[in-house]
Amino acid sequence: MNTRPLLPSLALMALMPAALAPLQATAQSFDQVVQAEVLPGWRDADGTHMAAVKVTLNPGWKTYWRAPGDAGIPPQITWNGSRNLGSVSLKWPTPEVFNQNGMRSIGYTNELVLPVRIAPKDASKPVRLKATLDIGVCRDICVPQRLKVKAELPPGGARDAQIAAALVDQPLTAREAGVGKVTCKLSPTADGVALTATIQMPSAGGAEVAVVETADPQIWVAEGITKRQGGALVTATEMMHVEASSFMVNRADLRFTVLGANHAVDIVGCSG
């Protein structure tokens, strides 16, 4: 899974316990705050398989979205040891925005059901799914966790209500949300590139937050400032390379997720 290294998160991780606690499929972690399992799901008519990884947290604990914010810890998932696994696509449910001590993070409380769409190499055979999740879980403190899960995914299977609900709880597409023109202004800074994006769209409700992602995991995107200007949502941020190298920004690859009180919106690409 592509994840973005976040510079503030690296500093936060330095304050945490260095050792990661390995888990089996449904075993609890060393401090018993999180556990994980595979929901085996079902095989669709086109041969793809819809499963999910379920992460369950103790009350009051949270874990993070794919772009966790400056105060969050980026999740990483690897599939080493899996068999009959062609490609994998993650369908992240709509996350929550948390503000604490002047810092913002984005993620989930209590549990996360993360749908996983799998294209088997041979659709007539089972998929042996093995995954290692390196995630952060937080309450008053943040603790890095390593969870290991595995499951046999048969060619048949049955629809799972938990997976179906997570697939429904997805951001709207730009078309569904009535998004109009999206423009991006880029300008060099001392450390990287400043970005101001103007998104013509109806309100998503409440105090909207726009999260910017790039296709390059080596580019760190700072926490932006989002505000309304009439019928447009304007977000401003700065992008920097984690190795302080020069880089190019392809406007077509920029991804904007607008998180509002009523719904979220997934927007890909902008014009100059």
What does this protein look like?
The protein has helices at 7-13, 161-168, and strands at residues 34-43, 49-57, 62-64, 76-78, 85-90, 96-100, 103-109, 111-120, 127-138, 142-153, 172-173, 182-188, 193-200, 209-213, 219-221, 225-229, 232-241, 255-259, 264-268. It has 272 residues and is mainly beta. It folds into two domains: 7-168, Immunoglobulin-like (Sandwich); 172-268, Immunoglobulin-like (Sandwich). Strands 3, 4, 6, 7, 9 and 10 form a six-stranded antiparallel beta sheet that branches. A hairpin with a 5-residue loop joins strand 1 (34-43) and strand 2. The chain is globular, with a radius of gyration of 19 Å. It starts with 6 loop residues before the first helix and ends with a strand.
Architecture blueprint of SSEs:
Elements lengths: L6 H7 L20 E10 L5 E9 L4 E3 L11 E3 L6 E6 L5 E5 L2 E7 L1 E10 L6 E12 L3 E12 L7 H8 L3 E2 L8 E7 L4 E8 L8 E5 L5 E3 L3 E5 L2 E10 L13 E5 L4 E5 L4
Parallel strand pairs: 11-19
Antiparallel strand pairs: 1-2, 2-8, 3-7, 3-9, 4-9, 5-8, 6-7, 9-10, 12-13, 13-17, 14-18, 15-17, 16-17, 18-19
Describe, in short, the structure shown.
It is built from 2 helices and 19 strands.
